[in-house]
Write a structure and sequence with these properties.
The strands form four sheets. This protein has an eight-stranded antiparallel sheet with strand order 2-1-4-5-6-7-8-9. A five-stranded parallel sheet has the order 10-15-16-3-17, with helices on both faces. Strands 11, 12, 13 and 14 form a four-stranded antiparallel sheet that branches. It is globular and about 75 Å long. By secondary structure, it is an alpha+beta fold. The protein folds into two domains: about 300 residues, 3-Layer(aba) Sandwich (Rossmann fold), CATH 3.40.50; about 110 residues, no CATH class. The longest helix is centred in the first third of the chain and has 17 residues. It is about 30% helix and about 30% strand. The two termini are about 35 Å apart. α1 crosses α2. It contains 13 helices and 19 strands. A hairpin with a 6-residue loop joins β13 and β14.
Length: about 400
């Protein structure tokens, strides 16, 4: 896998008051509803939206700064921070990572408490060559390029930038010598981030033949039929996917495609099932079946984005399906970095201690992520012997325990 995110630090974004989260190839966020798992995924959706539309439209789409910022505490926050460490660019490493930081500040108008102005500061830091680094800082209407070598900095000039325009969407236009290539790579990785959550109603729909093209599965699997048709042209991948589907759905014999209503340009997914004299259209399949096929399609995507986040991956799935899903997550994490949210003890049972992060929440509504360090988890596991991880979490040993109404 060509580089990955190493760490996420967030301040005052929704429930993420002040969290620093280490990220591996596969990171599973474990916790009950309302502790902030989904908000971690929303950070990446927000960053991707900034590149697609710029900073102000991305905020407006989410209701503005006050809707996105932390709601707890006695006073509303005046700033929001997102900081990433990664090893995406050519000379980056875990010891000398790429770093991107975004700070959005809110300043109230003295004459009107409900009115405010926003400002942003950004910083990109990366290695250009062995021993040399470069930092680009954006503040107000100016972007400044600074070279670093042996701990010393030298000013390589500055240029104008619109006051609320994000460097993620603007700085890739820089020349190669100023760091445009590295910024473009960071922006490309961030813009490809996908928060995946199957919209079962949309995923059931047939596809038009002209919609079948090379590309990734949409974030809500709206193009599931088209994507499955495309995937079926690869005999090896298709055999693996259908084998997995049959493993979870014992009555399933094959996944096929049929013309809809005699229209040659419309194809629907149909399931051939044992004992039935006619195939079952995906439109009539169960919620869990549609969601399973959407997840398998995502996990077998041959050209995935740099990062895929999955909301409540266990939702609608039989516990027996979870062992297979965890196996495929590990395999897919060799091609795309994965961050997954769950509140299923049965899924946690199938994880390794270094694959999951326990999420909790304090009395002010702020998320505590991680609630335990990896060392603390290892120590608890060693003390409790062979007790399944899901049972340890469910019993409250790890914190973030479930209540009965969340099962």
């Amino acid at each position: 896998m060509p580089g990955r995110l190493l760490e996420l630090h967030v301040e005052n974004f929704r429930s993420l008051r002040d969290v620093t989260i280490p990220l591996g190839p596969l990171t599973v966020l474990v916790g009950p509803n309302g502790v902030g798992k989904s908000n971690v995924l929303k950070v990446f959706d927000f960053l991707a939206a900034i590149i697609r539309t710029d900073l102000q439209p991305a905020l407006d789409e989410r209701g503005g700064f006050d809707e996105v910022a932390f709601w707890g505490g006695e006073k509303p926050p005046t700033s929001m921070v997102i900081h990433l460490k990664a090893d995406w660019t050519t000379h980056a490493s875990t010891k000398a990572p790429d770093e991107y930081s975004l700070t959005i500040r809110r300043r109230s108008q003295p004459s009107n408490r409900d009115a405010y102005t926003l400002s942003r500061q950004e910083s990109f830091a990366f290695k250009r060559t062995q021993g040399r680094g470069r930092r680009i800082t954006v503040s107000g209407g100016e972007a400044r390029v600074t070279a670093t070598r042996a701990g010393r900095e030298s000013d390589d000039g500055s240029f104008g930038i619109q006051r609320l325009s994000s460097g993620l969407s603007t700085l890739p236009r820089l020349g190669r010598s100023d760091g445009g290539e590295e910024v473009a790579r960071v922006a490309d990785r961030l813009s490809s981030f996908r928060v995946f959550d199957v919209d079962v109603t949309a995923a059931r729909q047939p596809t038009r033949a002209r919609s079948i093209r090379a590309g990734s599965l949409d974030s809500h699997a709206e193009n599931l039929a088209a994507f499955l048709v495309q995937l079926s042209t690869d005999d090896h991948l298709w055999e693996l996917l259908t084998r997995d589907a049959r493993r979870i759905l014992p009555q399933l014999e094959a996944i096929e495609f049929e013309q809809v209503g005699g229209y040659a340009d419309r194809l629907a997914v149909v399931l051939k099932e044992r004992g039935l004299r006619r195939p079952t259209p995906l439109a009539d399949a169960s919620f869990g079946t549609v969601r399973l096929l959407g997840l398998l399609a995502m996990l077998y995507d041959p050209y995935p984005p740099a990062l895929t986040c999955v909301e409540e991956i266990d939702h609608g799935l039989h516990p027996q399906a979870l062992e297979l899903i965890v196996e495929r997550l590990r395999e897919a994490s060799e091609r795309t970095q994965l961050i997954v949210a769950t509140h299923s003890p049965a899924l946690v049972d199938r994880l390794k201690p270094d694959e999951f992060i326990v999420c909790d929440r304090d009395e002010s509504g702020a998320s505590i992520i991680p609630a335990l360090t990896p060392e603390e988890i290892e120590e608890i596991v060693a003390e409790t012997g062979d007790q399944p991880l899901g049972e340890l979490w469910f019993s409250g040993v790890f914190g973030g325990d479930l209540t009965e109404d969340e099962l």
